[in-house]
UniProtKB/TrEMBL annotation:
Protein name in the entry: Decarboxylase
The keyword Transferase appears for this protein: yes
Signal peptide: none
Entry keyword Ribonucleoprotein: no
Domain Orn/Lys/Arg decarboxylases family 1 pyridoxal-P attachment site: 304-529, 580-764
PANTHER family documented for this protein: AMINO ACID AMINOTRANSFERASE, BLR3474 PROTEIN
UniProt cross-references to Pfam families, sorted A to Z: OKR_DC_1
């Protein structure tokens, strides 16, 4: 084999592993192109240059392919042999076949022997590639056995690797539900790299003794191996090193099924901390037992209990004598007019349509069978203790959680710019709301997220007022629409130090995919809750807390600075982990529209919450839930467990490619500026000092540092582009340019930005199309300027100035009027009383601010108080809520808005406000 260990390129160190699959595909294609040129080229100087370039690419590819089953190490030895024998024509044919096999993924369906070079073999690869194009994607071939790769960690020789691989190959049977190939690595570091760069790995067999260090300089592992000492690891026992490796693999890829093969005292090993292993094998255990155990483990994740039950139900002959004429498709199959509905949707969706909860199906309101099992699998996939399916969106999921946990007059701390469902949820629950202000990004007319300092300060105000017991919940959005992500673990830990039983509701509507990526996962609610639970149970934490407490007690506990200016630790004897997360599964994973989930990690759920949660769930959940949505949630969970890592990685790769082009293309930079980490997260919240995840020389290797340390980070898969330099506002750019001209759909704009979101369905072709459109638009703006007259240029300059300089400061929450406050010492307000007070017409009036009427009232000393929600789009959150005093800052902001859609505001009448008489005798809080 060619010795590549000496090569010191960024790729050797896999510093670009964030884009490893694109690097892999692009390098193989470039190698194929170089070989084709070499075969045709006659110039010796040109040939030497190409041979050198081919050597570099092969060296780079050998490192990457070391962690994949196809092409195998034997295949690569064959490739190097052809190269060294200068058989370039034959090598070009082999590489061409290999590239076709990778593109068509035919290696998943049959053995590809690269030593075969006849025309029939080449035609077979071509046919596979054509079939893939016809189908759109190889996975659509549902009859094929799903393919995965088994990682074996063992210090084997090349000959021993082939023996092991052949042994597992010989166990394959046509009746097996899955087919797999084997990847072997020889060290601790190589095992970690393999699970990072190879998404096909679904199972891992850790065997015997293996060294710690890889032969490669793997800088990609720098952040994951922090704190580990090579010397300590080298002196660990076989069992200790295997257990540590399994825990790290579980942290990176928790879905991987792990098995231990030990040559030592198997009974003693089994009694240790082996929670990440599904089973331990003694070295004498034969391959057949291992083979069947691995397949059973994969099958456990592959099952879709409710979807399978629904498919089985659709095949049964039934007599329908209940509601729903469309059940079994009867009302449309017999129709002379509605038959085209079946032509469009197909018959299966109607055969599966029913309101039955028996016959193999289940009830969503009281699940006992396949729905119950599907929800248990969802909890496993997302790291929750309990998970619940919701078929009418995350707006409803949010209301269920709030109603289950909050009683009237309980205080809830809420980020003011959260989704409107939370504001209405507060009304329904009768909560007393204390709004928290996010840091503003005035230059882009958007908010960031709520600083921890602000949260702690608010909790301490309640502590000082003797009202901390009434504070029941902290409700935050993670991540925000614009991609701002909290340091969830830090927020929870420091808040629990002030109030040990505080409940956290994390609205992760846009963050369901994060559970399936090792960089994103630590900033999810369920992972943070589980990590903190384990941390507080440990003796190491008790020692850390004792040392911290001794230092803290020496300070003045009545001084807020004591609490605000240092990290806080909760008392392990008092703390209770109570975290809830709501996911819009349909937004970022596979599910039909309105498919959502509630995930629970609450140590008090069974004792205190289960009964009210059930009642809240019954309150908001239809008695006729859509079974197709439930089935899609079940399938979406399975897909996330089986290939979520791969799909999310590809999503991030696509986003990074788009960002790279926008960072470096001169014309695009002139009109479209991608907002970086530093643009959306102020310096005081970036402890790492990382301003951009990308560097032209070192690539994307700063991302982990920021995500590990900073209070806030930006999700790179959400690309916010400032378009002020175009002179076109966000709403017009979205509709007139992107949608009407090119059919590009986006969700969110601000006055001078547009947001592009990648997801697990985004392809490299989609990114290429978007870049092509943006370049065309940039050229159009360039031509517009070049061909404009002097007056026209002045108009364009005025528009650009307005969108880049004349941006009104975003207003903070003013305050609730005293009529809706219980205490002047604390900021919460009774939003429910204010909301329903407006139902009586005599309590409200309209005041216009465009003619100065409202301003005149405030100058006379009147507190003008909103009687409704006022929500401009964009930015899409309430500028005013019922019971809130209208401040000068809010008025200035509303006057400066140039959007046409403001819910709760009628331009011809004005703002709906409470009369002075209504506020004189408000309902009791």
């Amino acid at each position: 084999m060619h010795d590549s260990s000496h090569s010191e390129t960024p790729y050797t160190a896999l510093g670009f592993y964030h884009k490893i699959s694109q690097l892999r595909a692009d390098t193989w294609n470039a190698l194929k192109r170089d070989l084709g040129q070499l075969v045709r080229l006659k110039d010796e100087g040109g040939q030497r240059q190409l041979i050198k370039a081919i050597d570099v690419k092969l060296t780079r590819l050998e490192i990457i392919e070391d962690y994949h089953a196809f092409p195998s190490k034997e295949d690569f030895r064959h490739i190097w042999a052809l190269f060294e024998r200068q058989e370039y024509g034959l090598l070009e044919k082999v590489v061409r076949r290999l590239v076709r096999a990778l593109i068509s993924e035919s290696y998943r369906r049959r053995h590809v022997d690269l030593s075969e070079t006849d025309a029939d073999a080449e035609d077979l690869e071509t046919l596979d590639a054509l079939n893939q194009l016809r189908r759109g994607h190889p996975a659509s071939n549902s009859s094929a056995q799903p393919y995965f790769e088994l990682l074996i960690v063992d210090n084997l020789s090349a000959q021993e690797e082939e023996v092991v691989r052949e042994a597992f190959h010989n166990l394959r049977r046509p009746e097996d539900r899955f087919v797999y190939d084997v990847v072997t690595v020889r060290s601790f570091e190589d095992a970690l790299i393999a699970v990072l760069v190879n998404p096909n790995i679904q199972a891992c067999l850790i065997r015997y003794e293996f060294p710690y260090k890889s032969k490669y300089n793997l800088s990609a592992l720098r952040n994951y191996l922090e704190g580990l000492s090579e010397q300590e690891l080298e002196h660990q026992s076989e069992a200790e090193r295997s257990i540590l490796l399994s825990s790290m693999i579980s942290e990176l890829r928790p879905e991987i099924d792990q098995f231990l093969v030990t040559s030592g005292d198997v009974e003693s090993t089994a009694s240790g901390d082996i929670r990440h292993f599904r089973r331990i094998f003694y070295r004498e255990t034969d391959y057949i037992e291992q083979h069947h155990t691995i397949l059973r483990a994969i099958d456990d994740r592959y099952r879709t209990p409710f979807f399978d039950a629904l498919r089985e139900y659709s095949r049964k002959p039934t007599g329908v004598f209940h509601a729903m004429p469309i059940s079994r498709g009867k009302s449309v199959t017999r129709s002379h007019w509605a038959g085209h509905m079946i032509d469009f949707y197909g018959i299966n969706i109607f055969l599966a349509e029913t309101s039955a909860t028996s016959g193999g199906l289940d009830s969503l309101l009281q699940p006992y069978g396949p729905i119950k099992k599907a929800q248990e699998y969802a909890a496993r996939a997302f790291g929750a203790r309990r998970s619940f399916f919701v078929t009418n969106g995350t707006s409803t999921a949010n209301k269920i959680v709030v109603q289950a946990l909050i009683k009237p007059r309980d205080i809830v701390l809420v980020d003011r710019d959260c989704h409107k469902s939370h504001h209405y949820g507060m009304v329904l629950a009768g909560a007393h709301v204390s709004y928290l202000d996010s840091y503003p990004l005035d230059d882009y007319s958007m908010y960031g997220a709520v600083p921890l300092h602000e949260i702690k300060k608010t909790l301490l105000a309640y502590r000082r007022a003797g009202e901390l017991e009434r504070v029941k919940m902290l409700l935050l959005t993670n991540c925000t629409f614009d991609g701002v992500v909290y340091n969830v673990r830090r927020v929870m830990e420091e808040c629990l130090a002030i109030k040990p039983d505080l409940v956290f509701l994390w609205d992760e509507a846009w963050f369901a995919f994060a559970s399936f990526n090792p960089t994103y996962r630590p900033r999810t609610a369920m992972h943070a809750a589980r990590t903190l639970r384990d941390r507080y149970r440990s003796e190491a934490y008790r020692e850390e807390y004792a040392a911290w407490k001794a230092e803290f007690d020496a300070l003045d506990p009545d001084d807020d600075a004591t609490w605000l200016e240092r990290p806080l630790l909760p008392d392990p004897d008092l703390v209770r982990l109570r975290a809830y997360a709501t996911h819009s599964t349909h937004k970022t994973l596979t599910s039909l529209r309105q498919g959502s989930m509630i995930h629970v990690f609450d140590q008090d759920f069974r004792q205190r919450v289960e009964a009210p949660f059930h009642e809240a769930y019954m309150t908001h959940t239809s008695t006729s839930p859509n079974y197709q949505i439930l089935a899609s949630l079940d399938v979406g969970r399975m897909q996330a467990e089986m290939e979520g890592f791969e799909l999310v990685h590809a999503q991030v790769e696509a986003a990074l490619s788009l960002r790279e082009q926008l960072y470096t293309h001169p014309l695009l930079q002139k009109y479209f500026r991608v907002l970086k980490n530093a643009d959306m997260v102020p310096a005081e919240y970036r402890e790492s000092g990382v301003e951009s995840f990308y560097d032209p020389v070192t690539g994307w290797n700063q991302m982990e540092e920021a995500w590990a340390r900073d209070e806030f980070v930006i999700d790179p898969s959400r690309i916010t582009i400032a378009i002020g330099a175009t002179g076109v506002d966000g709403d017009a750019f979205k509709n007139e340019y992107l949608m009407n001209k090119y059919g590009i759909q986006i969700n969110k704009t601000s006055r001078n930005t547009v947001l592009f979101m990648t997801n697990i369905g985004t392809t490299r072709g989609s990114i290429a199309y978007l870049l092509d459109v943006l370049i065309k638009l940039a050229k159009e703006f360039e031509t517009r300027w070049e061909e404009s007259s002097r007056p026209e240029r002045r108009i364009i300059e005025q528009r650009v100035h307005s969108l880049t300089r004349e941006l009104p400061p975003l207003p903070d929450f003013s305050r609730f009027h005293d009529a809706f406050r219980r205490s002047p010492e604390t900021p919460e307000g009774d939003i429910r009383s204010a909301y329903f007070l407006s139902y009586d017409e005599e309590n409200t009036e309209y005041l216009r601010f465009d003619n100065g009427e409202l301003q005149a009232q405030t100058r006379q000393g009147r507190d003008v108080v909103s009687a409704s929600f006022v929500i401009p789009y964009p930015p899409g959150f309430p500028v005013l809520v019922p019971g809130q005093v209208v401040s000068e800052e809010i008025l200035h902001f509303l006057q400066a808005l140039d959007v046409t859609e403001i819910h709760g505001y009628r331009p011809e009448l004005g703002l709906l406000v409470f009369t002075a008489a209504a506020l004189a005798e408000p309902p009791a809080c």
